[in-house]
Amino acid sequence: MNIQMVPERVVVVGCNGFIGSALVNQLTRIGINCLGLPKEEFDLLDNSTSDKLNNTLNAGDQVVFTSAIAPSRGVSDVIKSITMAETFCKSMEKVQVKQVILISSDSVYGDRSGVFTEESSCYPNSFHGLAQLSREIVFESSNVKKLAILRVCAVYGPGDTHNGYGPNRFVNQIKNSEAVKVFGDGLNLRDHIFIDDVVNLIIESLKNNLVGKLNVVSGRSYSFLEVANLCKDIFSPETEIDNLGSEGEIIEKHFRNDKIYELFPDFALHELEEGLNSWKNRVL
Fold first, then answer.
1. For 28-58, how does the pLDDT look when each residue is reduced to its tens digit (9 = 90+)?
2. Prediction pTM value
3. Most buried pick, 58, 103, 125, 145, via CB within 10 A?
4. d(CA 167, CA 146)
């Protein structure tokens, strides 16, 4: 890795989302100059926003691009996500920033069983996965010279805006004094990463001017039933767990996190129980 450098300025495109807002808050807390670009002021579905970006970005900036329709549920969402990426990349024709970090998703590998690394083939089998991979292709085909693509697995923690199935939904159900609802027997295995780890890995990638692909994962997968029981035990032991409907085909999706430690040997990832406890302590 290169010698770490404090970024001159970090520009976060999509600063109101889960990851974007957490990143801006942390950058501000540790004293790194940052600028958040909200969708209300920078509408990436409007082609003229490219010119607005040209007038906003500087050559020394490092940009973190989080914007997308997430989750993408249909063809129109995929097209919108591609358009948003194209609008930003068009601005790179006139201004060349120091680095761009694209926040992508592990959905590019598809919902299938296996052990995945950065070298694994991408076979998206959902609209969301297709949208994420399409964004990557747009950026890789653009004039961006130094591009890092961070493929993030399911993120949990305070500030979540999606209420996705897993820790975020389970904790919300507990907070609402509801039973935790698990599909089928909850045997599907997924990797979940704490929001603090995502943010700190982005910051490490900025400081090291990272180029290339990195899976932002914890490296350990849990069944949804295991996740539900951990959420219950940590947040409210008296909460009940209900099994609803069917979970369909059982998929056991695992990730290797070797590259994280190759790039950042001193980085410490949270185990799921640690992350949930940190979340609890923060909100109480």
1. 999 999 999 999 999 999 999 999 999 999 9
2. 0.96
3. 103
4. 34
